[in-house]
Design goal:
Elements (H helix, E strand, L loop, with lengths): L10 E7 L2 E7 L5 H8 L18 E4 L2 E4 L12 E3 L12 H9 L8 H14 L5 H8 L9 H16 L5
Parallel strand pairs: 1-5
Antiparallel strand pairs: 1-2, 3-4, 3-5
Bound molecules: FE2/S2 (inorganic) cluster (2 copies).
């Protein structure tokens, strides 16, 4: 906050987050990660490295997995943002969320929001991914707990359940 409570270089932005228009006043170069966590209280999106190397901060922008720590708020425009808080519908988890639970694909859970959104993006693009497509898509996601084999199983389970019409 600047002199007499004024912040200089501020802008007003309306972001489409989880299907709702949300207004924020902030610097245009503030990261989407900071806006989500610190201004909109959507703390499911995690701060890991802050420099694009861990994918803990992954959200969907128009369906594409995107590092929110590398995305400035003024670059978002009209893109539809989906965070982990926006995946459930009427109290039902998404197929990917269910699959992560069923497979126990996390320990501390710090990387899990980003993993789930990364997997959601992959399954949009490739509903039936091969093992190597899963590994390639998820490669940039770091899990300090080392749950990678279970994460691969969770993505496969989600793919199967979507095919069977279970979940989304
Ligand atoms: S916090 Fe964004 S990639 Fe690590
Ligand atoms: S479950 Fe702990 S970092 Fe992935």
């Amino acid at each position: 906050m600047g002199w007499l409570g004024l912040e200089f270089g501020m802008g007003d932005f309306v972001l489409d987050v989880n299907g709702a228009p949300l207004s924020v006043s902030c610097s245009p170069d503030e990261t989407l990660l900071s806006v989500l966590r610190n201004r909109l209280n959507l703390t499911g999106t995690k701060y890991g490295c802050g420099e694009g190397k861990c994918a803990a901060c992954t959200v969907l922008m128009d369906g594409q997995a995107t590092r929110s720590c590398l995305t400035t708020v003024d670059s978002v425009g009209k893109a539809k943002i989906v965070t982990i808080e926006g995946l459930e519908r009427n109290g039902r988890l998404s197929a990917v969320q269910e699959a992560f639970l069923e497979e126990g694909a996390f320990q501390c859970g710090y990387c899990t929001s980003g993993m789930i959104l990364g997997a959601t993006s992959l399954l949009h693009e490739h509903p039936h991914p091969t093992d190597s497509q899963i590994v390639e898509a998820m490669e940039g996601h770091v899990c300090r707990c080392g749950t990678y084999p279970r994460i691969v199983e969770a993505v496969k389970r989600a793919s199967r359940s979507q095919t069977q019409g279970v979940g989304r």
